[in-house]
Design a protein that fits this description.
Elements lengths: L13 E6 L3 H12 L4 E7 L2 H10 L4 E5 L7 H7 L5 E6 L5 H6 L4 E4 L4 H19 L10 E6 L2 E6 L3 E6 L4 E5 L3 E2 L5 H5 L7 E5 L2 E4 L5 E2 L3 E4 L2 E4 L2 H11 L5 E2 L2
Parallel strand pairs: 1-2, 1-3, 3-4, 4-5, 13-16
Antiparallel strand pairs: 6-7, 8-9, 8-12, 9-10, 11-12, 13-14, 14-15
Length: about 250
Amino acid sequence: MNRIFNFDANMMPLRCLAVDDEPFALEMIREFIGRVPFLVLEAATSNPLEAMALIRKDPPDLLFLDIEMPEISGIELAQASGHPPYIIFTTAFSQYAVEGFNLNAIDYLLKPYSFERFLKAAHKALDTIKAMQSPPNGPVLHGSITVKVGYQNVRIELNEILWIEAMDNYVRIHTRKKIHTPLQSLKSISTLLPPEYFCRIHKSFIVAISGIQSFNRDQVILEGQKLPVGRAYAAEFLKRMKDGSPQEGQ
């Protein structure tokens, strides 16, 4: 393979979490990650419930995740993590491939896999994450907002925000790195956002226009995540997206 060390030295290595209930498989992932200069292993565990806690506390950039595990499967773990990191599934059972890719996994490694196959998946993850971190076309959005999460004031860069979701009495701010949950209404958050860069698409959702990958009058897609467009917001949303928009879906 001719691009084993194809890595921009100015880019931080991808922070990895490995989850596998088989000690031999977990040790192999440790070894393979250690051989790739753009990966760094932050944690490895055989306990999926511990992995879920780690993801929610400080999401890694990349998750190597076994599917067939006791207590909770890798599929269930990914679904329960809210906004999980980029995932490369690892399993001995090929029947899970379709379900894994439905979760927008970057790749699927069928055990036993070679270091060359592992490296191919790692490069695919690197390319995907670099593309998502690249500045969007057009004006670069500067500035930040400050919200209170628990007892802490948290500053969030505007260009990191993908979408904001209203919950019962708080909001979930989905960024490129993690989710923040301030005790605040969607309406009050909207007053902090520059309206030329953000759009209300539903009573429960505000999205960053630059993050939209595709859209139609019923839904938008950001980072592979589908969000609904409410009927009351569709006309204004489509009007805003008419000029210089992402690709419109069918």
